[in-house]
Design brief:
The chain is α/β, with parallel strands linked by helices and about 400 residues long. The protein contains twelve helices and 24 strands. It has two domains: about 5-240, 4-Layer Sandwich (Metallo-beta-lactamase, Chain A), CATH 3.60.15; about 250-389, Rossmann fold (3-Layer(aba) Sandwich). Helix 1 runs parallel beside helix 3 (about 85-95). The radius of gyration is 24 Å and the shape is elongated.
Length: about 400
């Protein structure tokens, strides 16, 4: 992929990772991009780098435009290594560059990763760096989703370099929203928010309020496509997600050993259906937790089922609950169910885990010894229906 001029003198020079399918536990079925942007003015700025294996690609693209030793500034909006991993290799060529990062956390993080041997400039919210005809203004967005996060705004071009905000793991050789399948992009933006930014809704709301006060013609995130025509759409999506006001919908998540808990899951589904609540059924043997969380992002009800194994939940269910706890969904209602042979400890463990996340349980944990009969499944369906109607 060659460099792409997104505005006169402004280039997209990052990398496309077509084959990545896991991003620290989050499935990336459509690949990913590590976006970096070069601004050529009286002074030259590179905004972010890329993941370390793609360093040579970045260097090659930048070198098509300018000599690397002419770069004056490298802006590090985020220390995480999918953004900064190529920095040591880049600095071997950009020997005259100053690294701009957020004070104090960005400076601390970069020095912890890459040492103190570079020339750093730590900036605060509202600081401005002039490039000549253009300038860069820095806005701190701490804990969206690391303490060091910031975004960079170029007012003369009305471009926001938005870091992780508004991003998607979506690989494409076409950089703009008007050039791609928008339905796929919106789905990946939803999944990205659900699996990375959901715990930081309050910080996302603050950042969104700042962004809505800017004149914007382009949002350039660190992952995925560049927003131009559809900026209002992605802002509206974030407005909905960061308020954590779920829809009247349900996700039923389970694993099963000998199909008893699976039969219960289908009865739970029928209970929601009778109540007129759209519901989706997720068997943990075949569904990835990050895809499940994409629907939990907008669902009011979460029902979780597990049989009992060695007096515990199945490991797949425990792992799912651990993953969901880290993402901290708010304002949800929970339901615990499962089958057992003689102990049945897993079902109250599921309930306890849901309550520990702040879920309101809609009924007592639903337990079934051995194989459920048709009568017991009908009773289970009725219990769910009465609890959620």
């Amino acid at each position: 992929m060659n460099k792409v001029e997104i505005r006169p003198g402004i280039y997209s020079v990052g990398a496309v990772d077509w084959n990545v399918r896991s991003f620290h536990g989050y499935s990336t079925d459509r690949g990913a991009t590590y976006n970096a942007y070069l601004i050529v003015d009286e002074k030259i700025a590179l905004i972010d780098t890329v993941k370390e294996p793609f360093a040579e690609e970045l260097i090659r693209r930048v070198s098509q435009i300018v000599d690397m030793d002419k770069i004056d500034y490298i802006v590090s909006n985020h220390v995480e290594m999918d953004h900064s991993g190529a920095l040591p290799q880049v600095m071997k060529h950009a020997v005259n560059a100053t690294i701009i990062t957020a004070a104090p956390s960005g400076l601390k993080g970069l020095q912890a990763h890459y040492g103190t041997g570079y020339h750093y400039q730590a900036v605060k919210a509202g600081d401005i760096v002039s490039l000549g005809k253009r300038s860069l203004t820095f806005v701190g967005t701490p804990m969206l989703h690391w303490p060091d996060n910031m975004v960079t705004y170029c007012p003369e071009e009305k471009i926001l370099f938005s870091n992780d905000a508004f991003g998607q793991h979506f690989s494409s050789n076409m950089p703009f929203d008007v050039q791609v399948d928008l339905n796929a992009v919106y789905q990946e933006a939803k999944k990205y928010y659900a699996n990375i930014l959901m715990p930081y809704g309050m910080q996302a709301k603050k950042a969104l309020d700042i962004v809505k006060g800017l004149e914007l013609e382009m949002i350039c995130p660190s992952h995925g496509i560049i927003w131009t025509k559809h900026i209002p759409d992605i802002l509206n999506m974030y407005e909905k997600y960061c308020t954590q006001q779920p829809e009247r919908a349900a996700c039923i998540v389970f694993d099963s050993m000998w199909h008893s808990t699976e039969k219960m899951a289908h009865a739970v589904l029928e209970g929601f259906s009778r109540a007129g609540i759209p519901a989706k059924l997720y068997d943990l043997k075949v569904n990835h937790v990050s895809d499940i969380m994409t629907d939990i992002l907008i669902s009011e009800y979460v029902a979780v089922g597990s049989p009992t194994l060695n007096n515990q939940m199945l490991p797949t269910v425990a792992a799912f609950l651990c993953y969901m706890k880290g993402l901290a969904p708010k304002g949800r209602k929970g339901l615990a169910f499962g089958s057992y042979g003689w102990g049945g400890q897993s079902i109250p463990q599921v309930a306890e885990s849901l309550e520990g996340m702040g879920f309101e349980l809609v009924c007592q944990p639903l337990k079934q010894a051995y194989v459920p009969s048709e009568e017991s499944l009908n009773s289970l369906e009725e219990t769910v229906f009465q609890a959620v109607k």
